[in-house]
Design goal:
Length: 348
Amino acid sequence: MSPKPSPLHVSILRHDWSVEEIQAILDLPFTDLMFRAQTAHRLYFDPNRVQVSTLLSIKTGACPEDCGYCAQSARHETGLERESLMPIDEVLDAARIAREQGATRFCMGAAWRNPTDKNLEQVIAMVEGVHALGLETCVTLGMLTGAQARRLKEAGLDYYNHNLDTSPEFYGQVITTRTFQDRLDTLEHIRDVGLKTCSGGILGMGESRRDRASMLRQLANLPAHPESVPINLLVRVEGTPLQASETLDPFEFVRVVAVARILMPTSYVRLSAGRSEMSDELQALCYLAGANSIFYGDRLLTTPNAESDLDRALFARLGLAFEEMDPERTEPGACHKAKQALDAIVEH
Ligand code: SAM
Ligand code: DTB
Ligand code: SF4
């Protein structure tokens, strides 16, 4: 069973959005949208602190799925060299470096449709090792059964990442080898055992604004908002079916970040893939819109990330700081004042 949020909490965070309501927020004049997002952000977060995670691909390429954006699908000729599961000592070396550089969470990704039970035990040894270094742990391994989710929870995993990627309406144009419902099922298994959920999507794959509103609706109407919501800008990988996707209007990206912040005010909204192609000014707008988490380090899974030196320089220019690990952080509190403020933010 899902851990029960407090009744007070339920009364504050909505899970009953319509696409039309969300699209109306997405359509607001830009300055109004930014003001509302920043107001929502300040209800629950220090606006000058950013949570920092580092990614590592622990098993790369040769994935049987056909995700149209992905460098790692065996169905696309992307020239990526496949690598089998990384030895644990290499994983722990990378985690130590991430910790030294200031990351508080270490996310390990594997190009699997789903892990076998043997794979899972190998990953669990890595999770235990990373946890022992004092880092939060996150893995993204594809679809999970309920029993596998329970095993990961018992082993002490903190977060599981599994993205919805896009709207249910657009989904079939991006992925055919597993369904949108498969993704919802995995998210349910994760929630039911009490793992924290990391789930978001990708923008710039040719979807419409309505699709973006619909994807946000799916995320915000989950029985519990994902604790972490990664918003990825498509990295156009040569050899993938989406390599020639049109460039997304950068302001549209910022708008989606802002609406994610308003709909899920207690969640971390992560500025994820695609930062290496974003200007400093665009990233600053994303932080203003309520993004408060990034992937930090020179690589994502298989593609380059924004360089750490540039991130440090931008943080200094903007007066942003890396968030320290806060093991005491509990469910964000609910109060009458916050409810009134949230209602005012979404009214128009
Ligand atoms: N294989 C697992 C799965 O798909 O669930 C885990 C790894 S997969 C690479 C994790 C997520 O990364 C995808 O769901 C997608 O949202 C994101 N992603 C992958 N390739 C991307 C790209 N080229 N641009 C933006 N996001 C991407
Ligand atoms: C997420 O939402 N984005 C990350 C992480 N979760 C696993 C992955 C981004 C991958 C970008 C393309 C690549 O490097 O292969
Ligand atoms: Fe495989 Fe994940 Fe890439 Fe899809 S996104 S092809 S499941 S590695």
